Amino acid sequence: MKLAVTYDNTNGRVFREFEKTRVIKVYEVSDGEIVDSELVGTMAKTVEDIIGVITMLDADGVLCGDLERSSMELLDNEGILYYSGFYDDADEAVRDLINGYVLFGPDD
User: Fold this and answer.
1) What pTM does this model have?
2) What is the DSSP letter of 11?
3) What is the DSSP string of 41-80?
4) What is d(CA 10, CA 51) in angstroms, rounded to the nearest whole number?
5) C-alpha to C-alpha distance for 73 and 69, rounded to whole angstroms
């Protein structure tokens, strides 16, 4: 599984505003473990650009901070699952998701 996380490369946390994301940290997950990760710059000017990068990365899901309704609809249209409301350490957020500690998602 591949997860894209909006990333603040100044502090390692999940970037707060999905629509202003400039860096995505992409995690490769296998057998419940993070096996690889890399940083990808979005060079995005619009939310459609950000979603285009996530789609191009072939991510199965997105973890982010705040997410506007219009962005949710665009992600839905691309078939990308999203989990919003994360504001702390990005690596920890991914570990929590793959370990089943996340109790909310697209329908919340």
Assistant:
1) 0.90
2) T
3) E---SSHHHHHHHHHHTT-SEEE-SB--HHHHHHHHHHT-
4) 22
5) 6
